[in-house]
Protein 1
Amino acid sequence: MAAAAEQRRLAAVVESWLGRAVLVVGDALLDEWRFAESDRLCREAPAPVLTLRRRISAAGGAANTAVNIAALGGRAALVAPVGADVAGDELHDCLDRAGVWDRTVNQPVRATPVKRRMLAGNQILLREDSGAPDDALDDDGIAGLLTALDSATEELRAAADGTAPTLVVCDYALGALPTPVRAWLVANRERYATVALDAHDLADWRGLAPTVVTPSFAEAARLLARTIARPAANALHLDHPDGDPSDGPSELTVGVSPGDGSSARLGPTGEPGPAEDRVAMTGDGLSVTGTGVTVNATAGAGVDRAKLAESRLAELRAHTGADVVAVTLDTDGAVVGGPDGERRRSHSTPVPASHAVGAGDAYLAAMTLALAADAPLPTAAQLAQLAATVTVSDTGTCVCRRKDLLAALDSPADAAGQPTLVAADGLAAIVTEHRRAGRSVVFTNGCFDVLHRGHVRYLEQARALGDLLVVAVNSDGSVRRLKGTDRPVNPVEDRVALLAALTCVDHVVVFEEDSPARLIETVRPDVYVKGGDYPPEMVPEAPLVRRLGGQVRTLGYVPDRSTSAIIDRIRAQGTTSPVAGQA
C-alpha cells in the first residue's frame, strides 16, 4: 500500500508539470550516429573497412535538454545560435519533430557544432567533432540572440497566462553564451521563476542566483579549486592531459603527488577542465586546499567522489548562489543538497559508456520541471535520477518521454510485490528494481535475538533515513560464534518472522558469515546504520560502505532496553520462582 501511494504521489508531480513553460538557452549541437559493419582490413593499412548500414541524427547539448523537456510534457522553447548549413537544417528538423519551439538564431558565418560517432559491432570506433568553440559570435549574432531571448521570454509568459517562465542555461563552452549574453541573463533574472544552470565553468555565472545547478564531479571540484590560494603538502593530484576538449568528458586519474616517489594510478574519476593542468586533492578526504580538492592518501581505493561531494555541498551552494546543488557522478548517480542542509544520494544503473550520451540532459530536464512545479527536493531528485536511468537502455542520444517515466514508476509496486523475507542470492535483483525507481536504500544488520522496544525504535529511525529498509540477520551459527553457545534464544526462523511483520522493514535477509560485508557489496546501501553511542568512524564496515558511495550513521539505543538485559532478567526470575505446586 505504501509503495502504491508513493507511486501515485510521484505520478501526480509528473502530471502537474504538463505545459510548464521553459526557455532553454545555450550550446546546441547535432549528434550523429553512424552504424557500420566490418569484415576485412583495407590494403593501405591495418585498418577495418567499414560499410555504413544506418545513420541517425539527434539534437544534442542544449537542444537535447529542450527535447527532453518537451518529451516530459513541458512547453520548451530553444534560443541558441545555429549555423546556416546542412547540420543546422537537420537540427531544425529534430526540434520540429520533438515539438520544441525553435527560436534559434541563424549564424551564416558559424558552423553548427556536430559530434559524429562511427560504430561497428555496437562499439564506438571513433568520434569526429566539427564546429570549433573559438568561432566567436559577431556583433550581429549577439544582438540576434538578445532579441530572441527577450521575445521568447515574453512569448512563453503569454502562453502561460502571465506566469513567469522557467529558464535553463546550458553552457558547454562552445561559444553560444558570450559575456554580453551572460550579462543579459543575470540582469533579467527576475523575469524567470525557476532557473537551472548546467555549466562547464560555474565561475562564469556568478550573480545569476540559480534555483539549481547540476555540475559533474570535476566541474564542482574545479570551482572549489579556484577559491583556494595555496596548495598543501603531501597531496594527491588529479592529472589530465594538456589540451583537453571543452565539450565533454575525458579521463581524469588520481595519483600520488610529485616528489613522493610513487607513480600509482588508480583509474578514471571524472572530467577535466579545458584550461587547467591539475586539480589537487589532499588531506583528510574532506578538505579543500591549495589548488584543489583533497582526498585522503591512506584511503587505498582512490577518490570517494560521493563522500567528497557530500562534504562540499554547502560550499558549492555558497559559491554558486544556488538553492539546490546536484553533483552528478555519471554511473554512480548523484549527490543532492538543498537549503535544509540534508544530503541525498541516488544511484543509477551502470551501462557501457559507448551505448548512450545525454542522460544528464534528461536529469536536468526532470529536475527543472519538478522544482518548477514546487515538488519537494527529495521528490525532484528521485524523478530526475529515474528520468536519467530509464534513458540509457539503448545506443544513441538519451530522451526520456513522459510515458516512459510514468511506466517506470510502476517499478516500486512491482518491487513491493516481492516477499519481505528474501534469499541472499535474490537480493541484488530486488535492490536493482528499487534503484531503477530512484529509491534510496538503507541497510542494517544484527542478531535481533529477543525483539524489544529498543529494536523497534531503532528500525523506525533507520527506515526514516531512506525509501526502504533492508535488514540482514545473523544465522544461528553466526550468533553462536559471536555471542556464545547459549545464544540465540530464538531460532532464526522466529527472529526473521518478527522482523518481517514490522511495517518499517521492507526486506529481511539471513547471512551465514560473521560480517555482512558480502551483502553490503551486493546492496551498495545509500545509508548503512548501526546502533550504538560511538562515532560512525568506529563502525568496522564504515570504510567499505564509504568506498561504495554510501553514508554511515549510528543511532543510539533506547535506554535500559537490550536483549542481554532481558535475558538476564528472565534467568534471574527463573532462579527465584516458587517451586511447583506452591504458586
Note: The chain is about 35% helix and 25% strand.
Protein 2
Amino acid sequence: MRSLFLLLFGCSTALAQVAPLAPLTNPSGERTAQTYCNPMDISYRYNFEQLNERISYRSGADPVIINHKKGNNPGEYYLFVTIQGGWWHSKDLVNWRYVVPDKWPMEDMCAPAALSVRDTLYLFQSTFEQRPIFISTEPEKGKLTFYNRWLPRLPKDIGPWDPALFHDPDTDKWYMYWGSSNVYPLFGAELDKSRNLTYAGNNPAEAYKAMFWLDPYKHGWERFGPNHSDPFKPFTEGAWMTKYNGKYYLQYGAPGTEYNVYGNGTYVGKSPLGPFEYAPYNPVAYKPGGYATGCGHGNTFLDNFGNYWNTGTTWIGVNWGMERRIVMNPAGFDKDDQMYVNTRFGDFPHRLADKKWGSLQGQAPDESFTGWMLLNYKKPVRASSTLATAPTDTVTADRVADENPRTFWVAGQNRPGETLTTDLGSEHDIRAVQVNYFDYKLAIFDSDSTVYTQFKILTSTDGKNWETVADLTREPKKDHTCAYVEIPLRTNGKPVRARYVRYEHVYTAGKHLSINGFRVFGNGLGKAPATPTMTAKRQKDERNADLTWTKVPGAVGYNVRWGIAPDKLYQTYQFWHDHPGSFELRALNVGVPYYFAIEAFNENGVSTLSPVVSSDSGR
C-alpha cells in the first residue's frame, strides 16, 4: 500500500522530457493570461468590523467597475468594493493593482457609488448621514478631492444607502438612485450639477421619490431564503442605471446577499425617474448553482471593445455572515432590447474580449466561455498533512474538490512544502488552476505588507516525475485570495498534459494554511456526454415549476436553461450528476410563459442542447 501511495503521490520533482512552457508573465511581472475565473482574483482586504470579537476574514462585496477614459486614450478600469480602504486599477480586467487613496472616510466605504464623466471620476459612499462626494482626475495615483463637502440630510432611514450615480449623456442631467431595505423601496432623485450635485430643488425632503418596491407575490425570484424557500420579507438593494437604445434600465439586487439565489433584476422606463415597468424576463443576473453562487448587487459596464459586463456578489458566510467575494459575468442586450447576463459556467474560466463579440447580439454571450471544463470534481485528493487539533472529518483534503466554498482543508502547519495533489484518473489537457484560500482561525485585521500569497503548481503523468507549470514566487508579492493561474501553453503551442496536478505551498500570512477550493480546468481526451431530456410543469402557484430530467452516462453535471422564449434561454441553474434528477424551481414570474432545455457536461465538453419544452400552467 505504501509503495502505491509513493507511485501516485510521490514528491519527486524530476522534470518530464517535454517542450518548455511559454512565459507566464511579461517583463513587468504582469500576467499574460487572457482569461479569468470567478470569484475574481483580487487582493481582498481583511475586514476590521469584527476586530473586537477577534473574527478575522477577507471579504469583498457590492462591486462597481468603472471604465474611466482620459481624452482620446483607451479606457482604464477602476474597481470599488465594500470596506476595502481603497480601490483597484487595471488596464486589462486581469491584472488588478490596489490603490491607496490620499484621503478616505474613517468608517470606510460601503457599497460606494462611482461614475466617470468627461475625464473625472466621481465617488460617493453609502450613508444615512451627511457625507461628501469625492472626485479624481488621477485615480491611478489615488488622488481624491472634495467636490461636495456635504449632501443635504434626507429624512431618517431614507439614506442614501447603496447609492448609484448616473449621468445622462443625451440631456447632460445627473441622477442618483439608492436603497437597501425590506421596508422601503428604491429611491431616485435628480441632482443639480450647478450646485455640485446636491439634490435638485430647494427642499431635499421633496427631491426624491420612490422608484418601485419588491413584489414577491408575483415575482418568484424575489422571495427570500435558499432557493426562495423562506417566507421572511426580502431585501432590495444595489441600484444601478444603464441607458441603452433610448431606454433606462434601473437594476437592483434581491432577495438577500446570504443566499444562492441572490441576483440582479431590472425595471425599464422611458425617462430616468420613471415610470418604470417590471421586465418580465427577470432576474437578468442569476446563478443559484455551482461553486460561486449568487451574483446580486453589482453594476453593468462597457469594456473598451463595446461589450457589456455585469458584476455581483457571491457569498461564503462561514467566519461572518457578510464574508463574501465578487464576480463578473458577460452581459448584453438582444435584438428586442432584452437585457441579459450570462452565468452559464459562470465560475469556469472565461475569455476577456479583444474585440466586439458578434454573438452578444441576439444570443447569450457564450463566445466568452473558454470551453475549459472542471476536471477534478470529487476526484481523489491527498494532502501532505491535516491539522490534528481540528475535527479531521471537517478539514480533510477531499473538501477542496467538492465545489462548496463553505468546506475546506486545513494543513497541519502553515509552512513551505505543504501540498495538495489531485488525481484526475487519466491524462487531461491542463489549462488553468484556481486556488481559493479560506481564513481559518486567523488573527489578521489589516492587509499590510505581510499579507501575500505564493505557491507553485506542478503536474505529472505518472505520479513520480513532476514539472513546475506555474510559480508565483517569480511574481511581485501580492495577495491572491482567489488565485487564478492560466497554465501557459508549451512553446510548440500544445497544452500541458497530465494526470496529476499538485499545489505546493510557499507562503500565506497567518497561523493556518486553509483552502476551500482547489479547482483544475482543461479538457479530457474523451467524448462529451449524450444529450439528456427534461420535462417542466408549472404549478398552480405560477412562481414555481417542477423540473425533471434524465441522467446520462458519463455526465458530471447538467445545466437547466430557461427563458421567456425558445431563443431566449438566458437563465441557467447548474446541477451535479450526484444531485437528484428533479427540482422545484421557484424563480418564475406570474403571468409569464417559460421555455426550458437542458445540457449535460463532463471533463471532455458539453452535450448538444435538448429540445426546448414549454411549461404547462398546472391549473
Note: Confidence is low (pLDDT under 50) at residues 1-16, 360-364.
Protein 3
Amino acid sequence: MADRKAKARLEVRQAKPSDARAIAALAKRVYGEFEPYTLREIRGQLNNFPDGCFVAVLDDKTIGYCASMRIAGDKALKPHTWDEITGNGYGSRHDPTGDFLYGYEMCVDPKVRGTRIGRRLYEERRKLAEHLELKGIVFGGRMPNLKRFWRRVDSPQDYLDQVVAGKLHDPVLRFQLANGFEPIGILEKYLPEDVRSRGHAVQMVWRNPFVDQEESAKFRVPRGVESVRIATCQLQARAVKNFDEFIGHVDYFVDVAADYEADFILFPEMFTLMLLSAEEKELNPIEGIEALSRYTPRIRKALSEMALRYNINIIGGSHPTQMEDGDIHNVAYVCLRDGSIHEQEKIHPTPNEAYWWNIRGGDSIDVIQTDCGPIGVQICYDAEFPELSRRLADEGARIIFVPFCTDSRQGYMRVRYCCAARAIENQCFVVMSGNVGNLPNVANMDIQYAQSCILTPCDFPFARDGIAAEASENVETLTISDVNLADLSWARAEGTVRNLADRRFDLYHIEWDEGSAGGDRPDGPAPLHKGGPGGG
C-alpha cells in the first residue's frame, strides 16, 4: 500500500497580514483581564517587522503569537515602558540597524497550554536572532503572581529574588528562566494595565553565544531597490452625456497608466462630479450629491473590473456615497488588481461640504494591504490633520495617496504644503491628484485648481526638492514616476533625521477612541462660498 503522508496538524510560521483577525481573537481569549490589541496595532506589528512576528496554528486555528522587533541595545537595556519601547503597541520603533531583538508580545491560547507552544515560539525568536547575528533578545517579562504574594515581599525586586531562589512560584518567570533568559532588573510601571504584575515587569535578556558581546556591532540597511511605479491623473472636468461616456474617460487613463506598467493610478477627489452634467437641469448641492450617490454600485463595479483587466491598483479618488443610516459620506474606493475592493471615508468634511452638501465624516482610517505593501488614503482636508498620517505610518504605510478637489490656489497650497510636511514627518511618499477645469452647469464645479504631484521626504536618496514628479498647473495629464520603497527603510534607520524613531514616547503619544460615533458637522457659521468644494 502506498505511503500516505498525513497533513501536519501544527504549523509554526511567520505571521502574515491576513492573520491579523485571528491574532486579535487570540489576544481577546488570552487577555481577559485587560484591553486586548486592536486590529490596527496588530497590522502595525506585522507590517513594521514581519520577520519578527510568528504564529502557531493548530488544526487551522491560531493558538499562539509572538511579536518582536530590532532595537539598539542602548535603548533596550535601559529602563523603559512598554508603550515607549513599542511605539504605543504598533512596533513602529523597529530599527533595522538594532543589535538586539526585542520581544514585546507572547501569547498562547489557555486551552493548549502544556503543549510547549510558547517554547516553540521562543525558539523561532532565538533562531532569528542567531541568523541576524544579533547580540541577543530582550523583553519585559510579566510576573503574574506578584499581586498574590505582595504582602510577603518587600518590593518587586525582592519578589524576583525569591522566585529565582525557588522560595516563591511564578509560572511565567519560571518558564522564561527555564528557556535561558536571565533577569537584569525591574522595569517599573512597564505596563500599568497588568494588574497581576502590579504594572511592573522583569527585564530579561538572552545573550547570543555565537556573537562577541564586547564587539561593537554595526549594522547597515542595504541600499536595495524595491521599485513601485505610480501614476497620478490630473483630470479635466468635462460635460458628459451619460455614465458610459464618463467611465470611458476614466478607462482611457487607466489603460495608458497600465501601458506604462504602473502599479497604482490615483484619481482626484469628487472626480465623479462631472456626471451631474448629464442631468436635464442644474441641481442644487443637496440634490446633486444625492443624485451622484445613486451611481455608487456602478462606480465600484467599473473600477474593480478595470483593475482586474488592466492589472493595476486603482485609487478611485472619492465619490459621495449614501450609507445605511442615510448619511452621505465622501468615500475613496480602492480597487486592487486582485479583485478586492476597499473603502476609505473622508474623516473631516470641510465646512463647505458639511454645510452645503450635508456630507458627514467617517470614523476610521486604516492601512490597506496591497501587493506593493501597505498604503494609506487621506482625502484632501484629511491631509491637514497630522494625527491621521502618523497613524497610517505606525500601521506600516509607506505610500499615502491624497485625492483632492480645490477651487483656488490658496486651497491647493494648503493641501500641498501639508502633504509635503506629512512626507517629511512620516518618512513616506505622498501622492496628490486633483481636478482641473470647470463645468458651468454644475454648481459644485465652478472652477478648479490643481498641480498634482508625487512628494518624497527631503534627504539624500530622494529628489533634491522633495518632488519626485509634478504635473503642469491646470492641464489634464498623467504624471508617472518610479519610487524606491527601500530608500524609506534606509532613511528611517540611517537618514540625516529620523522623525519616526526619534519621537519622545516618554512625553507624548496619540490615544485613539476606537468606539467613536463621529461624523458631526463642523462648528461655525455658514461658509461664504456657496456650493463649491472649498477644499483644503
Note: The longest strand covers residues 61-71.
